[in-house]
Amino acid sequence: MWAMIQAAGWPIWPLIIASVVALALIFERLWSLRQSVVAPTGMVDHVLVEFRHTGPTHDLLARTAEHGPLGRILAAGLANVKSPRPVMKEAIEEVGRVVTHDLERFLTTLGTIAAMAPLLGLFGTVIGMIEIFGSTSAAGANPIQLAHGISVALYNTAMGLIVAIPSMIFYRYFRARIDALVVEMEQQAIKLVDFAHDERK
User: Fold this and answer.
1) Alpha-carbon distance 110 to 173, whole Å?
2) In 3D, which of 11, 48, 32 has the Cα closest to residue 130?
3) What is the DSSP string of 134-194?
4) Which residues pair with 136 in a beta bridge?
5) Which of 28, 82, 85, 118 has the most crowded Cβ, counting Cβ within 10 A?
6) Higher pLDDT, 135 or 92
């Protein structure tokens, strides 16, 4: 591995750093965007059962808000359960925007890495080409410098693609995952609003 890094030259280091950051972000988002963490199945039904028995107590609001993003949205609805339907929906939407922003955390960085990695690989390729052209002189070609230039060009091109492709795949996957979770939370919140205003039993 170290021999490959040496053969690729100094332009490989920004790509290595980018790959470490991308890998860390991918694992963090995979852990944070689990269904059981963001929008647990049946949570709104459990909250409604407690609400029927106790009403919108402070204890219920606090415990609901602790159950991840969906809990925060439902707690906002419960806090305004005695308000008119438009007021309750507005409160839920305001918290929903904040929750959606939190779910999209780090995606911009991951998307930037996916877009920039091929360019960093191209930069390494250019450096390698410069070394290749520099290996030729009036006395002839320097085979060691020529081989090193080719190594720099090829390794950096390959590394740029190796970093960019998985980063782009996971970036798009996380975008789709967040969209699905947001729709799920919207449906759960609507169920709470309908129940609070006697439109759903």
Assistant:
1) 12
2) 11
3) HTEETTEE-HHHHHHHHHHHHHHHHHHHHHHHHHHHHHHHHHHHHHHHHHHHHHHHHHHHH
4) 141
5) 118
6) 92
